[in-house]
Design goal:
With about 160 residues, this protein is an alpha/beta fold. It has helices at about 15-25, 35-40, 50-70, 85-95, 110-125, 135-145; strands at about 5-10, 30, 75-80, 100-105, 155-160.
Length: about 160
């Protein structure tokens, strides 16, 4: 039976890059909140971005059910920053008897800052379609992300993901 994989990790930790590589390996479709919000809204979402993200995440969960039932693996690129979010997603797919894997992109703080700096430089220099991570957003993301609990034994750790 096809499955759903959802990435866990801070902003700019390499989740999207990992999703693209994994999708090729397991023949999966990717549902990406960032990709869709940037395509539809660019940098114009402003204060409503969190509201849009919440609605898209709920939509992607429903589309994942439909897609898996049609025989296709799904990767949802969202982050699941909090334990509560991870628990809700686990319950959602368990209630529907759909296999779920959580893949945590685990990088240290120095690598995280390097990736933020690299992304921001690429946005400025080349107009890369991504969210600029200023100091305020980085602090907010760091404060909101809840590390994986020891009892979250179902999480698969992906270490040292490098950009292609």
């Amino acid at each position: 039976m096809p499955k759903v994989i959802i990435t866990v990790g801070r902003i700019c930790s390499g989740k999207s890059t990992y999703c693209k590589r994994l999708a090729k390996e397991i023949n999966a479709v990717i549902f990406s909140v960032d990709e869709l919000t940037l395509t539809l809204l660019g940098q114009q979402a402003g204060d409503k971005l969190s509201e849009y993200v919440e609605k898209l995440e709920a939509y992607f969960l429903q589309k994942a059910v439909q897609t898996v039932h049609n025989g296709v693996n799904v990767i949802i690129d969202i982050g699941l920053w909090t334990r509560g979010e991870r628990d809700e997603v686990r319950a959602f797919f368990k209630e529907r008897n759909i296999p779920l894997e959580l893949h945590c992109i685990d990088i240290d703080d120095n690598e995280w800052q390097r990736r933020i700096d690299e992304r921001n430089a690429d946005i400025k220099a080349n107009g890369r379609a991504d969210y600029f991570v200023d100091e305020g957003l980085a602090k907010k993301a760091a404060a909101l992300f809840e590390p994986i609990g020891e009892d979250e034994k179902d999480v698969i750790y992906i270490k040292d993901q490098r950009r292609e």
